[in-house]
């Protein structure tokens, strides 16, 4: 049997977030990193209810984002997807040039469908939409930190106008009164909007119940566009219910390690907590890498001697002042590149030395590690902390590797030990 739901995500960690929500609602999910070279027919059948293809299309030029999304669409349709889900950020990260509008319209055209919805709402993460206006926590989008985002500054909170500026077709609103009235009322409103020539409707949602009602209303709609929140209301349309089975992973046998290249507040806390627990940790110094020292070799020698004692941490995580100093000396992009390459080589080396359970902290760092490991597909397993599941990948030799890819601000303080089922201060 083919897959039910085919998802196109505009970035990697967003793809995992969506996959995690689908698994929690009972679907078995595989996440693919970029569109496979071969069509699904040329591959082993995908044993999953949903496939999420992770693209890097959020901030590339719109034409590139459209092209990649259409390739993903073609793959997913060939794999049998009955409904397509275009997933973007819950803060609707985009500019007047795109990419949410152009990609949505290109998908609609390719699918021959004349209507879709748009909702980034994810109340569990504080993202709600009311009267078409997006709130981040207690403030409007344009009053949140997104106002100053370096690539996609959001200065208008009204999604109907934000999306309207990116699309050729008209954008309308399914407002909260309609959503609250239930799936039937939403379908009636969709018919009205369609007749009025509207092609995309922003849908309000301020609670999980709203998302569940919307999910029921869009049953049978060929294309939906949303943040990851809508995923909680879709699997039930095919009869899926939450189950442990959906999150079951093939077992992994081997050592445990953590590689951290994130410099965010939450990760700094997690590194501190790990250091305080007295477990083995090796600090990677970007200036030593830049000076040509064999930092990767030293980190691996350190780790190899201690892998038998439970999780080993290799980290470049530093407080903001220290990071700024390094960036001042090396340049921000160069420093980031150097560290990402070093940590990816460390991860590769750790796996070569028998690590089969690996936590990676940092969005960009995760991308670099996954590339270095040659991982192209992940089966999504149980959630460790909100938004971060364990995943399983098959290594070239056939072994299973468990990976947890944590973007910067996710996870509780004890994440690096909790992920392995250990308490922070448990003796190793
Ligand atoms: P996050 O998800 O927290 O944003 P990322 O991995 O996406 O984490 O981004 C962190 C960036 O900072 C990466 O490019 C990484 O290589 C870089 N970096 C990590 N440690 C340091 C450091 N000590 N000094 C300078 N840059 C660093």
Mean pLDDT: 94
Give me the CATH superfamily of the largest domain: Putative sugar-binding, N-terminal domain
Radius of gyration: 22 Å
Oligomerization state of this entry?
A: single chain
Number of domains: 2
Task: Assign the CATH architecture of the largest domain.
Answer: 3-Layer(aba) Sandwich
Strand order of the largest sheet: 9-10-5-11-4-1-3-2-16-17-18-15-12-14-13
* The level-1 CATH class of the largest domain: Alpha Beta
CATH structural fold name of the largest domain:
Rossmann fold
User: Which structural class do the helices and strands define?
Assistant: alpha/beta
**DSSP E strands, number:** 18
Work out the helicity level.
25-40%
Number of discrete helical segments = 14
């Amino acid at each position: 049997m083919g897959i039910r739901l085919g998802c196109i995500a505009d970035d990697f960690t967003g793809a995992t977030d969506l996959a995690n929500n689908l698994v929690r609602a009972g679907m078995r999910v595989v996440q693919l990193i970029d569109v496979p070279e071969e069509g699904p027919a040329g591959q082993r059948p995908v044993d999953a209810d949903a496939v999420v293809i992770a693209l890097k299309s959020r901030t590339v030029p719109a034409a590139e984002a459209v092209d990649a999304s259409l390739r993903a669409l073609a793959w997913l349709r060939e794999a049998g997807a009955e409904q397509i889900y275009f997933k973007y950020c819950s803060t609707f990260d985009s500019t007047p040039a795109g990419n949410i509008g152009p990609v949505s319209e290109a998908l609609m055209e390719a699918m021959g469908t004349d209507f879709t919805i748009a909702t980034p709402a994810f109340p569990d993460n504080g993202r709600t939409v009311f009267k078409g206006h997006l709130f981040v926590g207690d403030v409007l989008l344009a009053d949140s930190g997104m106002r100053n985002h370096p690539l996609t500054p959001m200065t208008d909170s009204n999604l109907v106008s934000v999306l309207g500026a990116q699309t050729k077709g008209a954008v309308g609103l399914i407002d909260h009164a309609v959503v609250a009235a239930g799936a039937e009322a939403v379908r009636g409103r969709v018919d009205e909007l369609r007749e009025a020539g509207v092609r995309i409707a922003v849908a309000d949602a301020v609670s999980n119940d709203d998302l569940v009602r919307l999910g029921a209303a869009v049953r049978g709609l060929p294309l939906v566009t949303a943040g990851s929140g809508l995923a909680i209301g879709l699997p039930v349309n095919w009869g899926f219910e939450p189950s442990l089975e959906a999150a079951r992973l093939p077992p992994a046998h081997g050592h445990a390690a953590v590689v951290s290249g994130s410099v965010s507040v939450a990760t700094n806390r997690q590194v501190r907590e790990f250091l305080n627990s007295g477990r083995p940790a090796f600090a990677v110094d970007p200036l030593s890498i830049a000076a040509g020292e064999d930092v990767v070799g030293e980190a691996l020698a350190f780790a190899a001697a201690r892998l038998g004692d439970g999780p080993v941490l290799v980290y470049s995580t530093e407080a903001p002042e220290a990071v700024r100093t390094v960036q001042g000396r090396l340049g921000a992009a160069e420093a980031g590149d150097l560290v990402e390459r070093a940590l990816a080589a460390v991860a590769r080396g750790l796996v070569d030395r028998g690590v089969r359970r690996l936590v990676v902290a940092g969005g960009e760092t995760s991308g670099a590690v996954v590339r270095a490991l040659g991982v192209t597909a992940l089966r999504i397993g149980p959630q460790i902390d909100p938004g971060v599941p364990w995943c399983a990948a098959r290594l070239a030799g056939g072994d299973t590797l468990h990976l947890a890819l944590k973007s910067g601000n996710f996870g509780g303080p004890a994440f690096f030990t909790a992920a392995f089922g250990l308490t922070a201060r448990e003796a190793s």
